[in-house]
Each structure stands twice: as structure tokens, then as C-alpha cells.
Specification:
Layout lengths: L2 E5 L6 E4 L4 H10 L6 E5 L5 H11 L4 E5 L2 E5 L7 E2 L1 H4 L9 H8 L1 E5 L12 H9 L3 E5 L2 E5 L7 E3 L5 H11 L5 E5 L5 H12 L3 E3 L5 E5 L9 E2 L4 H14 L6 E4 L7 H9 L3 E4 L3 E5 L9 E2 L11 H8 L5 E5 L9 H7 L3 E5 L2 E5 L8 E3 L3 H13 L3 E5 L2 H4 L5 H7 L3 E5 L5
Parallel strand pairs: 2-15, 3-14, 6-7, 10-11, 18-19, 22-23
Antiparallel strand pairs: 1-23, 1-24, 3-5, 4-5, 7-9, 8-9, 11-13, 12-13, 15-17, 16-17, 19-21, 20-21
Helix pairs in contact: 1-2, 1-7, 4-6, 5-6, 6-7, 8-10, 8-12, 10-12, 11-12
This protein binds ligand EPZ.
The site of ligand EPZ has 25 residues, from α1, α5, α6 and α12.
Length: about 425
């Protein structure tokens, strides 16, 4: 397994280019099951999770070819309608095949995802949504088996706003008979991108980008090309990198992002004392002399994203004062806290609230990655810590960040990947 070795204290400056959005690609790729043919998905990031999704879809008969950041997909010959446990256990987003398989083939046999580093992460809303659309869904032996001659449009209200369940129901409803209404739909940009892709494929969807979606089922869809939106969480992560380790008085330019997807993060960064210049597809950020403590409560889009909670805690660990960080989406997503405390941070967690007492400095140490965004927070802290930080098991990071060590090194960080040893 690889580790990152970071010699902290280097001041970052320059420009970083943001890749395509992981959580958009992981929905767009299974959507190609809905219509046979050739697709080109531009700006698809080169991530472990994208590779995992490709391998899963290949077991069903899809074929993939990558040229730079364009992923060509051929879904002409789908011959299996199941997602086995060995794939799903690696990545929860594999559940995204349920909706398109059911919508187009009337059958899906999908392993239930396991938990993840920080908690159970149920899929009840996905299953209830399929049942509402008329599918017969059985849960047995850790698998979901869903059948339907043809799905029928229905009115669905999600008790909890769910990105995945919204995506799955959306992909199931586009070929259903009649109209489907989804209330309390997720509004995340990745779901809006999925909606736009499906419309490009011939689907009839209104309300894209809002929490009220109306889908008029059609008899067939056709392939389409699409350019994936930029990854707002990667962009947010680099904005925090600039805030925690940026060269005072100079700006770091986060290029190829969509600032309109990041307003909750940029607003909180300004409250923390950074200077921002926002353009159409970039944000320039200049750290000021000190970091001010700023409380954050995560919420659904367009609130502060839970996927930025760990990174925010890393920044607040060096603030001049105490801040409270509350996660209302995942009550137990704090595996990064004990590791940050090993670097000298002073954070306590009670329920879903972390109290972060800012310290003057962090000191390098060996720390363990537990999940994707927790690992990102350890890197951010390592950039600012005095001395050497080793972040172990960085395969977690490779799931959602494209060559993060190369992008950080280009900004002046002293970070290298050490392969091979058993850490
Ligand atoms: C998506 O996960 C993202 N993953 C996650 O990003 C992100 O943290 C999450 O949305 C929240 O924004 C992808 O898009 C691949 P949810 P998802 O369904 O769809 C509860 C990352 O770091 N819930 O919106 O699984 C759930 O427990 C990853 O890139 C149910 O109760 O999240 C949570 O409390 C981590 N029943 C809330 O809803 C269900 O059936 C939001 O979950 C489904 C969800």
C-alpha cells in the first residue's frame, strides 16, 4: 500500500486545475445502460472509483476506452443484469446500476452495499422508490432482486434528501409508463448533471436543479455525449489547502471549477479571513495573516457539503479561537479527528458536533487514512504541520482525487508518494 510523505511548512502558490466530478461520473456511467450504443463522457476523472465502476459495468457487457479525459462507452451488448458483492463492497455507488437495469431490462440483482468507514449508510430510500414505481423487490442473502414488466410512473416524496436515491429513481423513471414526480429530490449539481445527460439522451425531465422533479416516461432513449461538471469537492479541498498553507500575500488560482457550486464554502472561507476573487471558471484565494474561527453546520445542497467537513476541521485546528463543526448528514463522520489530534490538534467530538480549539501549530507524525475525505484532511494538516507527516493507506485518496500529490507539488508542496511497503 502507498503512503504520502509530507515535509510541512512549505508555502503554496500558483495554479491548480480541477478534474471532472467523481460523483457526477459515477452516475453518468451507469446511465449508459439505459440506451444501447456509443457514448463519449468528456472530463471524466482518472480515479479508482471510476475504474471500479468501469469494471463493474464491464461484467454486464459494457466496454470502455479512455483517451485522455474522455471515456468512450459502448453499451450495445448488455448481457448481465447483476452487481455482485465483490464489486459493490468496494464502492457503495455501485447501487446506481439498480435504477437503469430495472428501467430498461425489468430486472436487477444487486448486492447491498456494506457499511463504510463511518457508518451504516442504508439504501431503504432506493428500494422504496423502486417499489413505488411498481417493481417487485426482494431482499435476500445480502442482495436486492428487483423485477418489473414495465415500471409505472408514481409520486414519490423522499423523507430524507438523498443524492443516490434521487439518481436511482430518476434513471428508473425515464423509461417508465406515465409521469413520475419526485418531491424532496436532491439538488446537488451532480444530480442536475445526470438530469441534463438523460435529457440529452431523449428523456423528458422538468425541474432539474430543484427539489421537485417531474419525469414523463418515454419508450426509448438514445446515446449522447456529455461533458462532466468540475469536481466541487476537489476544488473546495484545494481552496482549503490555499487557506491553510498558501503563501501570505500571494494568490492561488483554482482553475476549471464552477464557483456557483461552491458558494457555501467560499463564503465560510471569507468569514475565516481569506481574500477571494471569483471568476467564471476559477477562484483566486489569498490567505491573510491568521485563520479566524468559523462555525459550520453541514447540510444538503446548497449548504455546506458534508464532503468538506473533514477538510474544514483541519483548517479550524489552526484558527485563532474555538469553532464548532456539526455534521447533520452523517452523525458519525469523524474518523479524521483522532488522527488530526495525533498531529497536535485539539478537537473533541460529542454526538455529531466537533469542538475545535485552535492551536498555534501542528507537528508532523504518522497518521492513518480511514476514508476519502478524512485522508484529504490529514494531507491538509500535514502541509501546515512542522516536520514530516506520513499519511498511510492513501488508496482511500486515490478513490476521489486525481494525482493529488502531483497537483500539490506543482503548488510548491513537499509531498511524495512512497509505494510498496506494508504500512
Ligand atoms: C452521495 O452519497 C455522495 N456519493 C457522498 O460522497 C456524499 O457524502 C453524499 O451523497 C451526501 O452528499 C456519491 O455521490 C457517489 P445520500 P449517497 O443518499 O448518495 C441517508 C464522497 O466523499 N440515506 O445523499 O450515498 C444517508 O444515511 C462521498 O465523495 C438513507 O437514510 O448519500 C445520509 O444520512 C462520501 N437511506 C443521507 O441520507 C437511503 O436509502 C444522505 O445520503 C439513502 C440515504
Amino acid at each position: 500500500m502507498d503512503k504520502f510523505v509530507i515535509n510541512g511548512g512549505k508555502e503554496l502558490s500558483g495554479t491548480v486545475r480541477i478534474s471532472g466530478a467523481k460523483n457526477a461520473s459515477l452516475a453518468l456511467m451507469p446511465a449508459t445502460l439505459l440506451a444501447p450504443g456509443q457514448y463519449r463522457l468528456h472530463n471524466t476523472p482518472g480515479l479508482r472509483d471510476v475504474a471500479t465502476m468501469s469494471r463493474l459495468l464491464e461484467t454486464m457487457g459494457l466496454r470502455f476506452r479512455r483517451e485522455d479525459n474522455t471515456l468512450s462507452v459502448d453499451s450495445s451488448d448488455v448481457r448481465r443484469y447483476e452487481a455482485p458483492y465483490e464489486h459493490v463492497k468496494k464502492m457503495r455507488a455501485s447501487i446506481y446500476v439498480l435504477g437503469p437495469l430495472l428501467g430498461r431490462y425489468g430486472y436487477a440483482h444487486v448486492s447491498l452495499p456494506g457499511g463504510c468507514a463511518w457508518g451504516p449508510r442504508p439504501v431503504n430510500l432506493h428500494i422504496e422508490g423502486m417499489r413505488k414505481l411498481g417493481a417487485q423487490v426482494e431482499l435476500e442473502g445480502g442482495y436486492v432482486t428487483a423485477k418489473a414488466k414495465r415500471l409505472k410512473g408514481a409520486r414519490i416524496v423522499f423523507d430524507v434528501s438523498s443524492v443516490g436515491a434521487t439518481g436511482n429513481v430518476l434513471m428508473a423513471a425515464v423509461l417508465a409508463e406515465g409521469t413520475t414526480v419526485i418531491d424532496n429530490a436532491a439538488m446537488e449539481p451532480e444530480i442536475a448533471a445526470l438530469g441534463e445527460f438523460l435529457v440529452r439522451m431523449g428523456a423528458k425531465i422538468s425541474g432539474i436543479g430543484t427539489n421537485h422533479l417531474e419525469i414523463e416516461g418515454v419508450d426509448a432513449l438514445h446515446p449522447a455525449d456529455f461533458t462532466t461538471i468540475p469536481d466541487r469537492i476537489e476544488a473546495g479541498t484545494f481552496l482549503v489547502a490555499a487557506a491553510i498553507a498558501g503563501k501570505k500575500g500571494t494568490a492561488i488560482r483554482v482553475q476549471n471549477c464552477d464557483p456557483s457550486h461552491l458558494s457555501a464554502v467560499t463564503t465560510k472561507l471569507e468569514d475565516a479571513g481569506v481574500m477571494l476573487r471569483v471568476g467564471k471558471d476559477f477562484v483566486e484565494i489569498e490567505p491573510l495573516k491568521e485563520i479566524l474561527p468559523v462555525n459550520v453546520t453541514t447540510s444538503i445542497y446548497s449548504g455546506f457539503p458534508t464532503d468538506m467537513q473533514a477538510q474544514w476541521i483541519a483548517l479550524m485546528s489552526l484558527a485563532r479561537g474555538t469553532s464548532m463543526v456539526t455534521d447533520t448528514i452523517y452523525a458519525d463522520r469523524f474518523m479524521h479527528v483522532p488522527e488530526l489530534n495525533r498531529l497536535g490538534a485539539n478537537i473533541t467530538v460529542k454526538g455529531n458536533v466537533a469542538t475545535v480549539v485552535g492551536v498555534k501549530k501542528l507537528a508532523g507524525a504518522k497518521v492513518m487514512s480511514t476514508d476519502l475525505r478524512a485522508s484529504a484532511s490529514l494531507i491538509l494538516a500535514g502541509l501546515a504541520a512542522e516536520g514530516t507527516t506520513e499519511v498511510l493507506r492513501v488508496y482511500h485518496l486515490d478513490r476521489g482525487y486525481e494525482r493529488i500529490e502531483k497537483k500539490l507539488a506543482l503548488l510548491g508542496a513537499d509531498i511524495s508518494r512512497v509505494s510498496g511497503e506494508e504500512f
